[in-house]
Every structure is written in structure tokens, then in C-alpha cells.
Amino acid sequence: MEASSRNTQKTLGFQGGGKESTVHYFGSLNFWIAIADSSNRYWNAFGLGNPFKDGSTIIVEINPPKEGIDRRISGTFIEDNERNIYMAHRGRVGGGRKGIGKKAFMAWYQGTTSVVKDGDKYRDMIVIGALDDKELVNKLAAFTKIVSVFKDEAVARSLR
User: Fold this and answer.
1) N or C terminus of the chain with fewer C-beta within 10 Å?
2) Model pLDDT for residues 33-73, shown as the tens digit of each residue
């Protein structure tokens, strides 16, 4: 895994508020991760570009709950039979614009999904990668870029 080239505290704004976060910028990937504490979940925001020069628009969040299952949020941790823990996403993407949402994203998404036990139900999820995977940052950057392309295409379609 590449080491971030800059780690700095920064307030990130989002619909409905903002959060003081530790932002890690990965220059060779043109990608950043913001991490902050939240009362009931791990808050992880992801974006593209240099957040210290280009702005810090959040593309996607993966916010697993600290305990239990919370299907209202898209991020989750899942565990396989060998007790490996993975970061996964339910596919719900926001953006407050027409054509952007879980149903549209999952219909558009060309990547692999996995049927995962989600409490008492089975659901399609996007498994990003194992927490101990040396390539996890690269996989998070790739997923962020996919969500960015989807959002750009959704906005372009709604403007036609």
C-alpha cells in the first residue's frame, strides 16, 4: 500500500453539515481519504484530486456502523468463514441530483457484486477489499473513480 503524501486535519463540508477530519492524500492515485469519528459509525469519505489545492468534494462515503447492522448506511464490514474482514458497500450513492441513487447505480455498475449475508437477509454488495489487503487503498481509489464516472454520466443524462 502506498503511503499518503500528506496527512492534515481539514473540515469537509457535505449536505447537511461538515466534519473535522484527518485527510490522507495519495498523490500518485490523485485520491484522498478523510477519516473522522462519529458516534455510531466509522466515517470515511473519499474523493479525487488534491483536496488541499483542488477542493474537497466528497464522491462517496463508506461508513460502517461501529456495532451491529445499519442498512440505512451503505458501508459495512463483512466477515468470511476464515474470519477475514472486508470493507463493502451496499451501492447507495448520494449526491442530491436527479438520476443518482442506489437503484440507478446498481443497474449501471459493471463490476462484481457478491451475495452477502446481511443479518437475517441476503443482499448484493460490492466487496471493496480485505482490511489487511496491501492493495486496499488502490481498490478504494478505483471504486471512488467508478462512482465519480457514474455521477458524471447521471448528471449528463439528466441535462439532456
Assistant:
1) C
2) 998 888 888 889 999 998 888 777 889 999 898 888 888 88
Establish if 152 belongs to a structural domain.
Answer: yes
Query: Does 10 score more than 70 pLDDT?
Result: no
- Sheet (strand 121-130) strand order: 75-79, 85-89, 121-130, 114-118
Distances (CA, A) of 110 to 25, 92, 105, 113, 143: 27, 15, 10, 9, 11
Torsion of CA 38, 66, 3, 9, to 10 degrees: 10
**Which triple of cell numbers denotes residue 114?**
457478491
Q: What CA–CA distance (Å, rounded) separates 111 from 126?
A: 8
In the prediction, which pLDDT does 83 show? 95
> Does 28 map to a domain?
yes
- pTM for the complete prediction? 0.88
Q: What is the DSSP letter of 156?
A: H
Burial degree of 22 (CB within 10 A; 0-12, 13-18, 19+)? middle
Based on the structure, what is the number of domains in the chain?
1
Whether 108 maps to a domain, the answer reads: yes
pLDDT of residue 20: 77
